[in-house]
Design goal:
With about 350 residues, the chain is α+β, with helices and mostly antiparallel strands. The protein is built from 15 helices and nine strands.
């Protein structure tokens, strides 16, 4: 199937079966396309929808986003993960407000120069937001093209990626490229799925290499396996009877960058040293809760929470953090939010887990 019949088959399918009522499709402009595309990176549509709606209520324009306090932005992003995406959103909004009067630039090179925007996201903004002809290559599109053309190799390898981009550029039509790009994403999400694709409903099945050769499960080629390293840390849950929980803002770089979270330590000795420096006899005996694991894309984080109660003066300065009442807890990393909402977390365990 050549480029023109391929695009026609995809568009005909989209007209009948494509998604047209997602929140970011109702008023489609460069800003809403940009926000939705960033949120949808490595995140399912159904997960993104409520986040997108809350986000747009709070930050309806680039100016609102650029001028918003960072802590407010991170609170609206908490739970979506990959927090560098949120930091890049704000940095880009600030640049657009400063250099482009709050309006998205319309050329690919300038869009790709903005923080957190790559080639595929730029293509989505141009085609879906500005109705310009531009190719995209997100995960769904990679899967459709790799299966249809029988492309071997992991799409993360530069050589394979180059071939897939050439296919995407060739097959993107001059007319209705916005609908075509949305159709390709829908086709990958709804029909040509990662597991158990619904080939019988596919509009391009007639000459799909993967279908003809029975290789739907092996294409695209999976990422080569790699053992995930494990990082072990200790986290302090410091409670005040009236002031709530003690939280610190994490550095911009690294996991959960910019979010409020629990003080974190590489060892129990480091945690004990911190307690002694701040203590002056004002902390009650502490206890250890069960180890928990959170898995990131490139490693496992095993963390052991340690609970303590502060009984000292309320006006003691805390230069690196602050007290937060339970009903004001928001914008926390998802694993920490889950930990603090667990009723067992603050319940003293058996005596052997107490720290003297």
């Amino acid at each position: 199937m050549t480029a023109a019949p391929f695009a026609k088959a995809v568009l005909d399918w989209f007209d009948q079966h494509g998604r047209k009522h997602l929140p970011w499709q109702i008023h489609r402009d460069p800003y809403t396309v940009w926000i939705s595309e960033i949120m949808l990176q490595q995140t399912q549509v159904q997960t993104v929808i409520p986040y997108f709606e809350r986000f747009m209520d709070r930050f309806p324009t680039i100016e609102h986003l650029a001028k918003a306090p960072r802590e407010d932005l991170m609170a609206h992003w908490a739970g979506l993960g990959y927090y560098a995406r949120a930091r890049h959103l704000k940095a880009t909004a600030e640049k657009i407000l400063l250099h482009f009067e709050g309006q998205f630039p319309k050329d690919r090179a300038t869009i790709e120069s903005l923080p957190g925007i790559g080639r595929s996201t730029a293509g989505a903004i141009l085609s879906l937001g500005f109705r310009q002809r531009a190719a995209i290559l997100d995960g769904n599109v990679k899967r459709v093209l790799a299966r249809h053309a029988g492309i071997e190799g992991w799409p993360g390898h530069s050589g394979v990626l180059k071939v897939l981009w050439a296919l995407s550029e060739t097959r993107t039509p001059l007319d209705r490229s916005d609908d075509y790009n949305q159709a390709m994403m829908d086709l990958g999400a709804l029909v040509c799925t990662h597991r158990r694709p619904a080939c019988c409903r596919c509009p391009i099945i007639a000459d799909c290499s993967a279908h003809q050769e029975g290789r739907q499960d092996s294409l695209p080629t999976p990422k080569p396996p790699r053992q995930q390293p494990v990082r072990n840390v200790w986290m302090l849950i410091l409670v005040h009877p009236r002031q709530g929980l003690y939280l610190e803002q994490r550095p911009d770089s690294g996991i959960w960058g910019g979010l409020m979270s629990l003080p974190e330590f590489e060892s129990i000795n480091d945690l004990e040293d911190w307690c002694q420096r701040h203590n002056a006899g004002k902390m009650r005996p502490r206890w250890i809760t069960s180890k928990r694991r959170h898995t990131f894309s490139h490693y496992h984080l095993d963390f052991i929470p340690v609970v303590a109660e502060w009984i000292g003066d309320e006006d003691v300065p805390w230069p690196h953090g602050r007290w937060v009442l339970p009903d004001a807890l928001q914008g926390l990393p998802a694993p920490i939010d889950k930990l603090l909402k667990d009723p067992k977390t603050l319940k003293p365990p058996s005596m052997e887990n107490l720290i003297a």
